[in-house]
Design brief:
The complex is a heterodimer. By secondary structure, chain A is mainly alpha-helical. Chain A is built from nine helices and no strands. Classes of the chains: A mainly alpha, B alpha/beta.
Chain lengths: ~280, ~140
């Protein structure tokens, strides 16, 4: 089972990878759609996609040892180049009369909750997408501003607000799942420990029994050994107390179908590796 | 190969005790304790195969004490129980086990309604009670 801290890093890594992949695919597609926009430059989309490919390579190099921090840095770099590209291209889009304002920013804001590695980074990305859209609006030509639909660019804030809520919802869900997995992992470890203790107890019971009976036989045959035998009695009694104490682990353990044979094999293996010749487990 | 089990003629009577226990040391001590201390005859065998080889002589014992787990062999004390009953054994059967109550073998043994289950380790007084059929 994946350890929870590792799982959090893997979630972050996967989110950053998907975000970079969306950039790598989305930006060329955006340029393709804008091919008829007058004077639309090629380099913003190309650079953004190129950087995202580099980030994907970096992420793949780190795939065996991902960290939340690394994935967050990659995610922020990715969103930065996207914002830069959109800042440039939206000016050209705005010059066309058919432009629906800041669609890419709104789409990006909705995508962030699904892929953000962590809360602060996600909120920063959403704020960036919304903030740059609003800022861009105010640097556009006043004529273009007047032409845009009523309410723009403030609709992007509504998208940002919904995105923020979705981001919190998704990250809390992931955290909850990780908690459940952690508890399950802890329970599995506890059950394994309990089973180990029970096997230890089961394995010890036969030798203890042998000691108890051998002591009694010796007592009857050699009464003069009584002082020594009393000491053995006390030692055996302590071992019996230990055996009874380990009984408490039974409540933590549940045997599964097939455990009978597994248990025997385990006992047999241990007997072979620890006993000199004859004794086997209970 | 099934080892031969030496059984004196005097043990083939109802007062004898049959023990099936795979641990050689424990079996030998058990037999000696029952013989020497409890003044009963005891036949000890180490496996299901040895029990079967014993045949009718096993059926003459008044009480059979069976270790539930007979080591790495495919047979268990449950199989020994089944064999004894199938052969018409009418004496008492006591399962002796080092396992806890929830172990699958112990659970299976509990389903044998007419058998008693005793957990190792037991002291000699309790062994006397087991042999005499005075378990409480």
């Amino acid at each position: 089972m994946t350890a929870p801290p590792d799982l959090e890093a893997r979630h972050a890594w996967r989110g950053a990878l998907v975000a970079a992949a969306l950039n790598a695919v989305g930006m060329p597609f955006d340029y393709f759609l804008a091919r008829n926009v007058p004077n639309m430059p090629f380099y913003p989309s190309a650079l953004s996609a190129l950087v995202s490919v580099g980030l994907i390579v970096l992420l793949l190099m780190q795939r065996r040892h991902p960290t939340v921090r690394f994935s967050s840095v990659v995610f922020l770099l990715n969103i930065t180049v996207i914002l830069a590209a959109l800042w440039i291209t939206s000016g050209y889009w705005a010059s066309t009369r058919a432009w629906t304002p800041f669609q890419a920013n709104k789409l990006g804001a909705l995508a962030v909750p699904l892929v953000a590695p962590e809360l602060r980074v996600g909120l920063l990305a959403i704020a960036g997408l919304a903030g740059t859209a609003i800022a861009k609006f105010y640097v556009l030509d006043p004529e273009i501003q007047r032409r845009l639909p009523v309410g723009e660019p403030w609709f992007v804030l509504i998208f940002a607000m919904f995105s923020g809520v979705l981001l919190v919802y998704r990250l809390r869900g992931l955290a909850f799942e990780r908690d459940v997995l952690r508890l399950q992992a802890e329970a599995a470890v506890a059950a394994d420990v309990a089973r180990g203790f029970l096997r230890l107890r089961d394995y010890a019971n036969t030798p203890i029994q042998t000691i108890v009976f051998a002591t009694e036989v010796l007592r009857r045959r050699h009464p003069d050994l009584e002082p020594i035998l009393l000491r053995i009695d006390r030692a055996a009694a302590r071992l019996m107390v230990l055996s009874r104490a380990l009984k408490s682990y039974e409540s933590m353990n549940s045997w599964n179908p097939g455990d009978r044979s597994t248990d025997r094999a385990a006992l047999s293996d241990r007997a072979a590796s620890t006993e000199p010749t004859r004794n086997r487990a209970a | 190969m099934i080892p031969s089990v030496h059984v004196p003629e005097s043990v083939t009577k109802a007062e004898c005790v049959l023990l099936v226990e795979d641990s050689d040391d424990l079996r030998e001590m058990f037999v000696e304790l029952v013989d020497f201390v409890l003044n009963r005859r005891c036949i000890g065998v180490g496996s299901y195969e040895e029990l079967v080889a014993l045949g009718d002589r096993a059926l003459g014992c008044g009480v059979a004490i069976l270790d539930i787990n007979l080591g790495p062999s495919p047979w268990s004390g449950i199989d020994a129980y089944t064999w004894l009953r199938e052969q018409g054994y009418t004496g008492r059967i006591v399962f002796l086990t080092g396992h806890g109550d929830t172990h699958p073998l112990v659970v299976a043994a509990k389903r044998k309604g007419d058998a008693e289950i005793v957990s190792k380790p037991i002291d000699p007084d309790r062994l006397q009670a087991v042999v005499d059929g005075q378990l409480r």
